[in-house]
Design goal:
Distance between the termini: 76 Å
CATH superfamily of the largest domain: [2Fe-2S]-binding domain
Bound molecules: FE2/S2 (inorganic) cluster
CATH architecture of the largest domain: Orthogonal Bundle
Helix content: 25-40%
Number of helices: 7
């Protein structure tokens, strides 16, 4: 059975415990009263370093905290918000961009590591008003629902086709030593397994990628 104390009594208890705490801290060493007093100086978050990036065939100069991820640089500093932040831990693929033609998770890369590299985001795939064939195929096959994963899916698919053309096997390849691979659905699903879709638009995503692959 729980007995409720009258308000005045509870207030007295709280006042008493506060007074006791202050008394104990008055006799405690400085670092116990203020842990920051003995902590090593925190990294200065205001330090920014000039960086020269190349994004979607354009030179981009920015000053960033050297700890800034490529994803945060793109979205928060450069204004390219097409690349999405899903997990921020390299698990969902929503942040996939191309670096020198290869797909990477931008949330796991520091921007400063990619000075001089050719970075391509979803904003850089179209040629003016003409969609990239992979973008057009996603539209034609309805390869999305909410669309949050879609920029990462498309960038990943573009690089995945190049990996396949270059003869890179996957875990779904029956002969890993083969010179070329036909992209059946199992191959596509395996090769795209780093890109998750919470709307489960997978059948249409696979159909879109197969379409582009079959057209060469
Ligand atoms: Fe980068 Fe999920 S946000 S993998
Ligand atoms: Fe919604 Fe893929 S379309 S997460």
């Amino acid at each position: 059975m729980i007995t409720r104390l009258p308000d005045a009594t509870r207030r007295q208890v709280l006042e008493g415990s506060s007074a006791l705490t202050l008394a104990l801290l008055a006799g405690a060493p400085a670092e116990a009263r203020n842990p920051a007093a003995s902590a090593p100086a925190a990294a200065d978050a205001s330090v920014r370093v000039p960086m020269a990036l190349r994004i979607n065939s354009r030179a981009v100069s920015v000053s960033l905290d050297p700890r800034t991820t490529l994803l945060d640089a793109l979205r928060n500093e450069i204004g390219l918000t097409g690349s999405k932040k899903g997990c921020d831990h390299g698990q969902c693929g929503a942040c996939t961009v191309l670096v020198n033609g290869r797909r990477i998770n931008a949330c796991l890369a520091l921007a400063i590591m990619h000075q001089g590299d050719e970075i391509t985001t979803i904003e850089g795939l179209a040629q003016g008003d003409a969609l990239h064939p992979m973008q057009a195929a996603f539209v034609a096959h309805d390869g999305f629902q909410c669309g949050y994963c879609t920029p990462g899916q498309i960038c990943s698919a573009v690089a995945m086709l190049e990996e396949t053309r270059a003869g890179w096997p996957s875990h779904a390849s029956s002969d890993v030593a083969a010179a070329s691979f036909s992209l059946n659905d199992a191959e596509i699903r395996e090769r795209m397994s780093g890109n998750l879709c919470r709307c489960a638009a997978y059948p249409n995503i696979v159909a879109a990628i197969r379409d582009v692959a079959e057209r060469g």
